[in-house]
Each structure stands twice: as structure tokens, then as C-alpha cells.
Amino acid sequence: MKSKTLQITVAVLSVMATVAACSEAGSADKETKKEDISTIRKKEKDELIARGKYLVTVSGCNDCHSPKIMTPMGPIPDTTRLMSGYPSEKGIPTLSEALAKDQNWVKMSPDVTAFAGPWGMTFGANLTPDEATGIGNWTEEVFVKTIRTGKHLGQEGGRPVMPPMPWYVIAKMTDEDLSSMYQYLMSLPAISNRVPAPIPPNEIKITKQ
């Protein structure tokens, strides 16, 4: 009788040990899966950001949206202020009377962040994730709608995205492309730089000669 009891006890303990081992293995598997999912998601985001950087660079976005450093070969993007727009410390540019009257040419500032033409005067926007002066409060949906519609904030009846922004070209990109660009822009350092609003033609400052 004692022998049978001992055998049953051993069997029960063996089953309990097996269950415990399986439970520990299951917990370990769950932890591994959690880590794997986190790693995968980070890798996916890193890949989106890398693709976004590529698209922003080859599309020439830095040409108008990044302040420049002047070199003997002309202006190059200031890598410490990428995509932060027309430098607000420069104030509102003025045009000579002759330039203001000549509507046969589009004028631009030396660092290619301010422009004047028949539409008035416009400035490269701050596309860094600064919440007060950039696009830090924009959702991806707002960003995509703005590009797709050519309307500020993607709002119906909103003001148009002004020249020389080639939104109608970028609008032909895929949703994945635009998502990648958004992720890259949101990964940049947030730079506080309040860019002036567009100026109508009749309000451009003119220097009398």
C-alpha cells in the first residue's frame, strides 16, 4: 500500500514539474515574442525614416525648406537647420521698384528660401516637428491631405499651397512614399522658427530708388 502511495506521489510531482516547466517555457516564449514584435516595429519605422530621408533629399525639398550656408560654389543646406524653413531672423525681404514691377521673372533670396512672383511673396515652410512653428501638431493624415489636395492643412476651402511648392508633383507619390516622408520629417530635431505668412502682391515691401 505504501509502495502504491509513493508511486502516485512521485507521478503527481512529476506531472507538476512538467506543467511548471511548460509554464516557464511559455512565459519565456511570450517575452521573446514581445521583444521580437518591438524589434520588428522599430526596424520597420527605421526603414520608413530612411526611405523618407531618401525621398526628401532626391525630391529637392531641402532646396526651398532648408536655410543655406554660402560657399564659393553657391548655397548648400545648413545641416544644423534642415527643413526649418525661411530664417525668421532675416525679417521680411524688400524688392526694388524695378524688380517689383517686372513680372516676367520669379525672384528668390540668395539662400533660396524666399520667393516673389505674380502670386506675391512666399517663404519655405518650417517642416520640422516643432509644435508651435512647424508641423509637430500635424497628423500623418493632415500631411498627406495637404500634399494630395494642394490646400493648407488639407482643408476644403483652405488657402492654396503657394508657389513655388510643386505639390502637384509630390501628390503623385504613393501613400507609402508620403508616409515615409512624414516619418522622416517627424524624426528631425524640432526647430523653433516662425516663418512669415504669404504676402499678397500689393503688400510686398518696395524700396524706392
Automatic annotation (TrEMBL):
Known SUPFAM superfamilies for this protein? Cytochrome c
Assigned keywords, A-Z = Heme, Iron, Metal-binding, Signal
Recorded superkingdom: Bacteria
Cross-referenced InterPro entries:
Cyt_c-like_dom, Cyt_c-like_dom_sf, Cytochrome_c-type_DH
**Would the keyword Amino-acid biosynthesis be found if you checked this record's keyword annotation?**
no
Q: Taking every annotated instance into account, which residue ranges of this chain make up the domain Cytochrome c?
A: 47-189
Give an example GO molecular function: heme binding
Signal sequence segment = 1-21
Q: Which PANTHER family match?
A: ALCOHOL DEHYDROGENASE CYTOCHROME C SUBUNIT, BLL4482 PROTEIN-RELATED
Q: What is this protein called?
A: Cytochrome c domain-containing protein
